[in-house]
Amino acid sequence: MVRFTVLASGSKGNCTVVSGGNTRILVDAGLSCREMFRRMRLAGEDPATLDAIIITHEHSDHVSGLAVTARKLGIPVYFTQGTHRAWVRWLSPRKQMTYAQWLEQCRQQAAARMAEADTSPEDCDTEEAEADEEVEVAATEAVNATAERKADPAPERKDPAPPKDPTWLPVVEYFSAGTPFRIGDMAVSPFTIPHDAADPVGFVFQAEGIRMAVATDLGYIPPNVKAQLKKVDLLLLESNHDLEMLRDGPYPWSVKQRVLSRVGHLSNEAAATYLETEYDGQATYVVLAHLSESNNLPELARITAERALNGRANLLANRLLLAGQHEPLMPICF
Ligand SMILES: [Zn+2]
Ligand SMILES: [Zn+2]
């Protein structure tokens, strides 16, 4: 069976479970590990059966629970190289090192960790708290170690344990936008999206003949994305903001400009225009996603998309759903 379960969607966190054949993939990890696991269980998904995590881009609403979850489950994380580098930089603001130095450090720390005893798989909280502090700790430990050596010259004194690396992951796999690949039984087609991140992508997943597209965090829909969204059975499409609400809303002008820009987010109106004029109407499910809580209302997004779909009599069979921020959407099964 093929299943698509949105656990969360919006600027406070994004993650979705896509399963087909014997493969189960977490798309983005933008909630805490504990909350992701809670929502998975609520939706009838077992976290222990995840095979991999795949990341669209490095913004925190897509990666905030990534390291803890990947370590807890011991599963590989798939990134583009650009996104991985940006994520590493984001977690290592105080470190001055080249990418080669960082890779070497990873190798050393991976070896060190292999030697460590495993933590309990249910013990998310401890590591999450640690993860938040790891960057701080790494910096302070380095400073303290120097201070201690200066203050206490006794030769028998033990050095402190090496600082933990907040960017350490069990396995990192790279893919490139435009080059399809497989994770187990799932075929994955990553495609470039226009968004203000290092190397952002959307995906089409295919298993058992069912195609599911994930297209959020894009300023507009360029031709390459339109081509990818053809003949999909499920279309998860951004419907981020209502243009008027955004213009009159609480955001500072600079943020409004960013959201509205060609590398920002797709408005209700832009999503509707696509659905009305270019969408091929093949999807059984259209899921509106990444709705802003400040500049949108679910009903507004729904009505705008419904009008667009209802304007085309042949699309009445399409089922329109809304992905929420605070509760998982019940699994969509094929
Ligand atoms: Zn986002
Ligand atoms: Zn983003």
Give a summary of the structure in a few sentences:
With 334 residues, the protein is α/β, with parallel strands linked by helices.
Query: Which regions contain 5 or more consecutive residues with pLDDT less than 50?
Result: 132-159
* Ligands (ions, cofactors included): zinc ion
What is the number of beta strands? 14
Oligomer: single chain
Q: What percentage of the residues does DSSP assign to strands (E)?
A: 15-25%
Element pattern in H and E: EEEHEHHEHHHEEEEEHEHHHEHEE
Q: Give the helix level as a range of percent.
A: 25-40%
CATH topology of the largest domain: Metallo-beta-lactamase, Chain A
Biggest sheet: strand arrangement = 6-5-4-3-2-1-14
- The domain tally reads 2
What is the overall pLDDT average? 87
Helix and strand composition category = alpha/beta
The tally of helices reads 11
* Terminal residue distance: 6 Å
Principal-axis shape equals globular
